[in-house]
Design goal:
Elements: H1 26-41, E1 46-48, E2 58-61, E3 71-80, E4 107-113, E5 119-125, H2 127-139, H3 150-166
The structure holds ligand GNR and nickel (II) ion.
Amino acid sequence: MAKLDILEFPDPRLRKPGEKVEIVDEEIKQLIDDMFETMYAADGCGLAATQVDVQKRIFIMDFSEDREEAWTFINPEITPLTEEPSEFAEGCLSVPGFFENLDRPNRVKVKALDRDGKEFEHEFEGLPAVCIQHENDHLDGKLFVDALTKLKRDRIRKKLEKAQRLAAK
Ligand code: GNR
Ligand code: NI
């Protein structure tokens, strides 16, 4: 297993859309295992392949306390199940240190392939539902800061650019 580097806003590579996965082979499984190692090391609840510079439609998630409820989503298709908005603020490992509540439905249905390439369908509510929509946006090159005002987004960009210069990333 290997820990991967997580790209940070405003890195243009975060804007590249992911391509559909045709076969879930050993290479894809290795990528998923590396993504879990990366997400757990960064103390995140979700991670999209886009964030580790891989343009494939894959994201992972684990919302359990003891970090042993590993969800893998390949080629996900998301359907909103309510117009009721979620009340959870979201953060992003690619936008470290900033949290905002976006207007997202509080319940979604997801159809995807799991790590074995098997199709499944599941409904999520609350924070996991927000996370799934957040991860799916990554696969389309979108970030939660896109929904903020330009003023807020520019402030976040400037702060992160400064932090990245200081860390010489
Ligand atoms: O770790 C994460 N937590 C989180 C909390 C609320 C809504 C979304 C998220 S996703 C984020 C990890 C991440 O950046 N995934 O892309
Ligand atoms: Ni994110």
